[in-house]
Amino acid sequence: MRIERLGQDKIRIFLTFDDLSERGIQKEDMWQEIPKVHDLFTEMMDQAYKEVGFDATGPLAVEVIALPAQGMVVIVTRGKYDHHHPGFGSSYEDELPDEVYEMEVTLESSDTILYSFDDFEMLIEAAHVLNHMLVEAGRLYKYKGKWVLQVDSDPLEESKIQAIIAVLAEFGDAISVTSAVLEEYGNVVIADDAVGVICEHFKLQN
Fold first, then answer.
1. Domains in the chain, start-ordered, CATH in brackets?
2. TM segments (predicted)?
3. Close Cβ partners of 52 (under 8 Å, ≥ 6 residues apart)
4. CA quadruple 121, 112, 26, 14: dihedral positive or negative?
5. What confidence tens digit (pLDDT) does each residue in 159-181 have?
6. Partners of 150 in the β-ladder
7. Exposed, middle or buried, 104 (CB in 10 Å: 0-12/13-18/19+)?
8. Neighbouring C-beta atoms of residue 138, cutoff 10 Å
9. Which end of the chain has fewer beta carbons closer than 10 Å to its terminal beta carbon, N or C?
10. Which of 38, 39, 105, 100 is nearest to 77 (CA)?
11. Above 70 in pLDDT, residue 38?
């Protein structure tokens, strides 16, 4: 579990599939109202308070994005008290409760596989292994000093997706950002067919 502060009222938590399995949670469980998922959210909020000082008191907007390879990205935004909120009666207008822990959860799934590489040589090696598995695939970003390869898993068969993830995991690291974050804060280096372009211009080092 990795926690990153995005702002005064916003954090991002990255859960790997190992984090989930250690707690007896399947990916599909995140879509259900079950006690162990509530326990996981409580644990995340406790850890967020300890690590980055994020106080989860008050209404929270929780966005859970399931990624095909990396695990899940959980974005938590702390809202402001709304005196007209249906949860508060008029008697609460002058004296709000000390602790309100309510969550509005949004769940979505992404078809995007994202892996980062510290070393461009490792990316070249990965691209040459992937080249025979993918046709005109991949988008390459530069983000926070790392090379990030994005592959859309939507048109691929499940067995091929797992093979691609195995290759990427051998050479790179799963990254806890979404495509939207990369699009906004990263720099596009190769917009299309990144795997093919890298293989065409960069040969393997002997």
1. 2-109 (no CATH), 112-201 (3.30.70.1950)
2. none
3. 3, 4, 5, 11
4. positive
5. 788 888 889 989 998 887 888 88
6. 114, 139
7. exposed
8. 22
9. C
10. 105
11. yes
Q: What angle do CA 163, 169, 174 make, to 5 degrees?
A: 120
How many other CB atoms are found less than 10 A from the CB of residue 172? 22
Mean residue pLDDT across the chain? 82
For residue 140, CA distances in Å to 6, 36, 79 come to: 23, 37, 35
Distance CA 6, CA 75 (A): 9
pLDDT of residue 160: 85
What confidence score (pLDDT) does residue 199 get?
94
DSSP 56-122: --EEEEEEEEEETTTEEEEEEEE----TT-TTS-GGGSSS--S--EEEEEEEEE--EEEEEESSHHH
The CA dihedral of 175, 177, 179, 181, to the nearest 10 degrees, is -140
User: At which residue do the structure tokens 């469980």 appear?
Assistant: 29
- Rounded to 10 degrees, the C-alpha dihedral 56/57/62/64 comes to 30
| Structure tokens that stand for 97 in this block | 């409760």
